[in-house]
Structure formats: structure tokens, C-alpha cells
Hints:
The chain is α+β, with helices and mostly antiparallel strands and 416 residues long. It is 22% helix and 24% strand. The two termini are 32 Å apart.
Amino acid sequence: MKRALFALGLSALTLSACSGGLIPNGVPTASTGASRPSPDARLPEKAAKPIPSTPEATLAAPVPTGDGSTAASLGVVRGPEIGSLQVDARKATLAMDSFRTSCPGLVGRNDSSGLTQGADWVPACDAVKTWTGDAISFFAAYMDAVQVGDGKAFATGYYEPEIAGCRTRQAGCEVPIYKRPSDLIDVDLGLFSDDLKGKNIRGKVSGTKLVQYDDRAAIEGGSLTGRDLEIAYANDAIEFFFLQIQGSGRLRLPDGGVMRIGYESQNGRGYTGIGRLMKDRGLITDGSMQGIVAYLRANPEEGRKVMQENKSFVFFRELTGAGPLGAMGYPVVGEASVAVDVKFIPLGAPLWLSMDRAEPNGIWVAQDTGGAIKGANRIDTFWGAGDRARAIAGGMAARGAALIFLPKAAVTRLGL
Length: 416
């Protein structure tokens, strides 16, 4: 992830890759005594009960034209007319507004999916500036729907959490939130070999060698202590763990104020999904966020060790403007923005979901990316902030069909 929001769906804890954070050794856990946050700040005890829905059938998959590593090589087929799709008018309007926001970046981006060129989006982006009609008519007028590959979609959810915290360390608020260390180095491997174009690593210099950066256990053990990297502190280690997964969030301060923090960087270490790990070991049977939290709270020492097996660690910065920000650098919007794999869905493109849960159905806009969001038709839906957002995102795991909306010029060029 290159921007502020490290968009990794909570359901991906059991299925793919996320990140998290814990307290340094020697600091008492925030799950006991006065250090525990008030109930309204805690993670939801239960996921929202799914609203069932029957997804539309996918179209026949196209014959791949290449290795399947991008949408263009996997193949695309023309979808139904946009005006014939089942959509929620309110959500479609939110999506049109988010599309409008994305336009400045959209027309100037290099699309690694192979489906569009920046100039393809200009007519739609010019029109949306002054559009006064309904959102469905706008999308139908300037775009056509296509299906990438077999169109079979899997959607998880993420949200912007709010947890108890403080700007300076105090009793009951002792979990450090770090900014990016100055010795963390990003390396573009494509500068050294054409075979490595598009690949990047992070590390630090030790002597004359580039080595891996400190992992979670080392950081929690105090490797960054004394370097003036703390931008704030959290009350509860487990809640901060989940905030790291989301990549941005709000700290509710003792004086009633709010400090917003967003993703700045990550230590470059690979991710281990603790939900899958815990299920494989028989520690839990409920792989939802709520099931994981219940185990972590009931077994703090074992939970700490399990979470340390995820070596990835996220660094934050304070956010002072609109946000949280997605990979395009624009604010993501609840029930309108999604994280995608840019090799299969262009950032800034609208898309349509028809899933076996009703909540994610409708039009969204791809405005974010995430380490766990890989492959065709893999979607992470953003639900905003608050109890409802946490409850829906925490249990979101929906399957169904996906279509992407592309400019008519791009669809013509693709021969569809």
C-alpha cells in the first residue's frame, strides 16, 4: 500500500494478509483494571447478522489471452447494460461522488490492468463535474460494464476504528504508536534489474548490507524505544492490533477530543494471518474478528505470542485533513469506496457487486489497495466509522458476481 489506508478486510484475517501491533515487553496489558477502555470504544462483540441475497449469475468466462497476471491477459467479456443492473440509488449517488473525487488522479494514472488509458476517462470526468441527473444514468451514458475472467467475486470489509488513546504516555495508555523510522529504506528493485520491475522491498542498512527491518517481536521488545518515534499511545493492545489492520483510525483522547492517524509505512516484513493460524491450531472455531478478539482477551499471554507470529508492523502519521485516505490519495467514503488489486481493476474505476449478502450489493469505486487484496474480482468494501461499520466489516465474507465499468472508448478498443 502506497498511501494512508492499509486496506485489509477483517475477514481477511482468516484468509489472507494483514498487519497488527502489540505492547512492548514489560508494559502491562490494557485488558485489565483501569487501563481497559470504556465499552463503547471496544470492538463489537458480535458481527452484524448477514442479510441474505441471491447473486446474479456470472457470464461465461473468456479465453485468456496471456498468463492471467492482469485483467487484459486474463480476458474480459461485455456485461449487461448498466441501466439494467439492480442498484441502490443512494449508494449509486455516493459512488458517483467518489468517482468525481477520483477523476484528477484517474485521468493521469498508468493503468496496470491493461484495460484503460488515462484519456479514456476524460469524457466521463468532464461530464461528472456538472452532472445534475441521477447516478445510474450518468454511468450508463459514459461507461459500459465488463466482466474480468470468470467474474466470481469475493468481498471482505474494512472500516475506520475509534479506540481510546492519548498523545502522551500515561497510566492506562501505554501502547506506543510509532511514526516511520528514519532508517527504514524503500528499495525499487526495478532500478537494478528489468526482471524485477514493479517489485519493491523495505529494510535497513547494517554495515555495508541491506538487511530486513525489525520485526514485530523486536519492535514490541523495545527496539525503537528512545528514538522519539511515538506520535501517540493507545489504551488497549488488542484494539490497536485491529486498528493497525485497518491502517487508519481515530484515537478518542482523555479530554474528549479526537486524533486521527493514518498509514505512513510498514516494516517490509511478510504477513501471517492469525485467524487462519488460530483455526489451524484448534484455538478457535469462529474465525470472525469477534471470535479472534474473544480468544485474545481470554488468553492474553498465548494471544500475544500468536500475534507476534505476524512479523509485519505498521507505522502511522497524524491526519489533519479529510480522510481516511486511500491509495489514490483521496478520502475513502463509507459504502462507496473499495480496495482492489490494481492489476485487475483500475484505481478510480466504478464497479458493481451482486453478492450472497445484500449489504455490499450495488456500485462502488476502486480507491484503495491492500496487501491481502490480490487477484481478479477480489474486493474489500469500506464501511466508514462507528458501531454499524465495525459490525458489518467484522463479519463480511460475501461471494457473488462482479462487473467493472469502463469508458466506452476503452470497451471499443478492447473489441467488446
